[in-house]
Specification:
This protein has 144 residues and is an alpha+beta fold. The strands form three sheets. It has a four-stranded antiparallel sheet with strand order 2-7-4-5. A four-stranded antiparallel sheet has the order 6-3-9-10. Strands 1-8 form a two-stranded antiparallel sheet. It has two helices and ten strands.
């Protein structure tokens, strides 16, 4: 995912996910961890927001160890490897949700990976630009 917060561009990198039935999910963003795999320009300090279909903030996090649910995140086996990476754990009712990743600090731009997992099952993992290309193709095919 490419995160770029230029003042003229107000677009935020987002991933939308629909849930059927109540699910406990973990949403996490990896940025600094990517450098150990040779990824240049990794997002140094990502922050994460989870919003419902009405745009209301459901949960947010900057550094996963600062979460009040850090023990559950760690026990899930899905805690981010780097303390600067965010994660949220929530039990959510059926509905549509949006995950938003932002860069914070002195270098608010870079590459990151967003993962959405239901406990025991990966729902989405990938670079946002790949997700957007797939979504654009799907929408174009559906609309024509």
């Amino acid at each position: 995912m490419i995160v770029d917060r230029k003042p003229k561009q107000r677009q935020q990198p987002v991933v939308r996910q629909s849930l059927t039935g109540e699910k406990t999910i973990i949403v996490r963003t990896l940025g600094p961890t990517l450098t150990q795999f040779g990824v240049a320009n990794a997002l140094n300090d990502p922050a994460l927001e989870l919003r419902n279909a009405q745009g209301t903030l459901v949960d947010s996090n900057d550094n996963w160890k600062s979460s009040p649910k850090k023990a559950q995140i760690q026990a899930s086996g899905l805690a981010p490897p780097n303390l600067a990476e965010p994660a949220v754990l929530d039990t959510l009712p059926m509905g549509n949700y949006t995950a938003i990743v932002r860069g914070v600090g002195a270098m608010p731009t870079g590459l990151a990976i967003l993962e959405i997992s239901a406990i025991g099952r990966l729902l989405f993992s990938g670079r946002l630009d790949d997700f957007c290309k797939t979504a654009a193709r799907d929408c174009a095919a559906r609309d024509h």
